[in-house]
Amino acid sequence: MLEIKCPYCGKRSQNEFSYGGDATVKRPMLGEEISTEDWDNFVYFRDNPRGKHTELWHHVSGCRQWFKASRDTATHEIFDTCKMNEAFNE
Amino acid sequence: MSNAYRTKNSTGLINKNKKINFSFNGHTYHGYEGDTLASALISNGIHLIGRSFKYHRPRGFLGVGVEEPNAMVQLHEGNKSEPNIIATEVELVEGLKAKSQNCWPSVQFDIGEVNNLLNRFFPAGFYYKTFMWPKSFWMKIYEPFIRKAAGMGVAPLQPDPDRYEHNYEHCDVLVVGSGPSGLASALAAAKNGARVILAEDKANFGGSLLTDEVTIGNMSGKEWANDTVAQLKSLPNVILKKRSQVFGYYDHNMTVMIERVSDHQENPSKYTPRQRLHYIRAGEVIVSTGSIERPISFGNNDRPGILLASAAKEYMTVYETLVGKKPIIFTNNDTAYSTALEFLKNDITPVILDTRNNSNGELVKEVKQKGVNIRFNSGIADTKGHLKIKSAVIGELDKDKENFTSLESIDCDCICMSGGWTPTVHLSSQAGNKLKFNEEIDAFVPDKKRQRESAVGAANGSFTLNQSLAEGFQVGFDLSNKFTDNNIETNTPNSKEPKYEKHERLWCMPLPQGKKPKRFIDFQNDVAVSDVELAIREGFRSIEHVKRYTTLGMAGDQGKTSNLNGLQYVSNIEKKIVPEVGHTTFRPPYTPVTIGAIVGREVGNHYLPTRKSPIHNWHEEKNAVFVAAGLWQRPRYYPKESENMNDAVNREAANVRKNVGICDVTTLGKIDIKGPDAPEFLNRVYTNAWLKLPVGKARYGVMLREDGMVFDDGTTSRLSENHFHMTTTTAQAANVLSHLEYYLQVVWPELDVNVLSTTEQWSGIAVAGPKSRELLSKLFPNIDLSNEGLPFMGLVDTNIDGIFARIYRISFSGELAYEVNVESNFGLHMWKRIMDEGKAFNIEPYGTEALSTLRIEMGHVAGAELDGRAVPFDVGLNGMVSKKKDFIGKRSLSKEAFSSEDRQTIVGLVPLDKRTKIPEGSHIVENDKVASPVPKLGHVSSSCWSVEYNNPFSIAIIKDGKNKIGKNLFAVSPLKDISIPVEVVSSHYVDPDGERVRS
Lengths: 90, 999
Prior knowledge:
The complex is a heterodimer. Chain A has a single domain (3-28, 36-83), classed as Folate-binding fold, CATH 3.30.2270. Helices cover 9% and strands 37% of the residues of chain A. Chain A has one helix at residues 36-43, and strands at residues 3-6, 10-13, 18-22, 52-58, 66-72, 78-83. In chain A, strands 3-4-5-6 form a 4-stranded antiparallel β-sheet, with no helix packed on it. A two-stranded antiparallel ribbon of chain A has the order 1-2. Chain B is 22% helix and 28% strand. Chain B is built from 24 helices and 50 strands. Classes of the chains: A mainly beta, B alpha+beta.
């Protein structure tokens, strides 16, 4: 079980959180003209990297804030977490 | 011959003043306080304990602790019965009942032993080769056979009556194992002020210090251990746990430990858990788990009475038990000589066979001085004795040690073997440590760590006491310094132990000429040298493949005694060195763990939390039958007297259509939405338009996922300019909230909107039926409930008995209906007021079944239709989709596939006989007479008995549904072997124009 540092609450066990996927994906703007290919890339396709991954977590059984984490998908090491409007300390 | 096998001196940990009676295979024996089931049986001369896994060979004890691969027994009886318990780990307790496993009719005479005679038909990979064909044999012949043959003990059929608990702990330093290095590191860390947990699997702290004759400072090893434990106990920052096995090392230094709390107690209190599972998040973990002795492979090396030399020694020194009176000691190293010395203390002179040409180690010299003849350059070729070892065929080895030069038979009643020592690296390996091979000790040791884990002492390959203590004190101090500023260092005491010479790199004896007795490597899985040879001959090269093909090192044992011997043998055949062969992965749990402990208190009603509405007790009093809706308990129907479910549901639903019904809808998800951008947010979240919804009005809304599938639906009302009240389905309430939070926090943080769940704050009561207006007008005489005063989708705030109430004119049943919301605390009061007032109108409560009937008849979609595969078009919600604005998932809807005529869309079904109810989940086919696979048109999502037309009605999702209306098809359920001819009709079966809700 991972130990995740919520940027609002501090270190908590993984069972308080839910995973939210790749944090670098940008939703297309509302009303934007977009090709089917680009839209499909947004909806369905994600990279599955081995190593460092910037991802979203939701402190769902806590403060209910979404935040970003930088995690190694192979070792589960979490390098840093930050609020949505912040950048990692790297 | 009761307790005939006890040592002369009582220097161990047995309390002879307390006799303990127990039974094994129906016979009664006694042992003493401090005994394990294993030591008590051996002291009674019993070695035969079970039958082996594959060949049903008679087996005895190999070890004395967790390393034991053979001695698994069935403990207790009835609902407390427990299979596959390692007898060496069971503390003796009055009245204990144990029996042998994997044998029938008895352990002495076991029919299954025929497998041993046929062993040439059961080589490695037997199952893979034999059960492949014919294919049709699998289900009826092979699988039942394998199921019967597999496994060892028998799981009880009744629920486990014992209580298990979970505990969560945090500490700075967790020390696993209380041998010299463990005690040293715990003491060093604790004295420096770190919060320490010390875990010991056995009933006594001390590890090897309890059996080895060593000196630390001016004390014996045992005295030093006791003294150190006393010091640790006196410190407030230390938790000492014995009978506690750390069996798993997971991510971010989460370890899991099983504590045997009351297994050893004669009459534990009712409230004492049997076992406790501790989740320990440790800052640092010190792995001081010691080492396990390696067996040696030789012909028939698995007979009862053949065991590890270290185990024989521990039985003598700790449990005051003699494993035999005519021992052979067979070794490739010095440590087994300490076992010889223990025998000598009991006036028993062992025969000693040493594969080496000579040794001048201190213990060897001492044994020599006592006049014992040591046969160097010798080994065991084979053994005899069916249920217990009787004799051994021994001989001298040739120069290359590849053959025996001469053989002779000597009598014995036990063989104590030693192939040197293997560090217990399981936890380090589980933690992700990349192990390296240490040539000096011919074993793997921890190397590159991935987590905050440090191995010390024998677990780190440091086999001398000096080294163990030095490492322990140093690492304990260094790691504790990460957590405290005290900088208090504890000095390492001087220590003295015998000097050992090096072991010989020889773990497998040659076969006696002309014979091929089995030489076992893995006792638990019945893997012999010949199986490993076969695997390699058949082309398995990777050690992971050899493991799976032969089952070497698998299952509960995890290769504790067998791993390295297996690797060594593979490397001998392959002419590679061991590090090139590599090692298999060590997996948790290190020792078997009772399922009950993993489950803990989360059983029965505690498996999940239960959510109850404030009106729950009323439903209970009215004889409601409940159904789980997520975590909620909802009334399903309210049977009266002799009514069955169908009767009750039809009565409840018909009463709503005719008079008025009342339904508890508190469980619906409710979300409060506030902020200047709230209308814009709803406009983006829902498929329909929200900007112009007037204050005081509700609107039905549909949400999609980005992939265009319908996510949820519900009504949302505008309470004031920037304040909305959203309702969701019961099932999706939590997901919808997370979804909204995601878009507000991650995607559109610029929107000034706040969302908050208010599900628990409001109690909702639906009042539905043609008489609902009249009823509520009586209850709320001050407000205008006429169609003009409160039209469909309107809402009004009011008061009753000083309570705030909000009345929505919304309907799920398709009838004229209202939903009264009050603060949760007043839910029951409101409910009762409506019931009282409603008597005059023949009001009756209705449950979720009648609720379903009403919505199915009307063709309203719910969870069964909105199953994550439906776009709005499929379920008749196309009218809800705005063409003007963009919203979540809209771009997906323009994909060709989502408007294809091939899509499965919603229809209604009526059986042609107007009698047969169509089971939900039935397939819809055009022709039920064609051979399978029958082309499937779709499936039945919801079924009910239409109270309006008094015949069955179903909703189905079928291919090109709109154009199938009027056609006759078949609803088939191969599972129930039925085929029902049906007519396709519109899904809006009752009141298709929706006149009633607006009446």
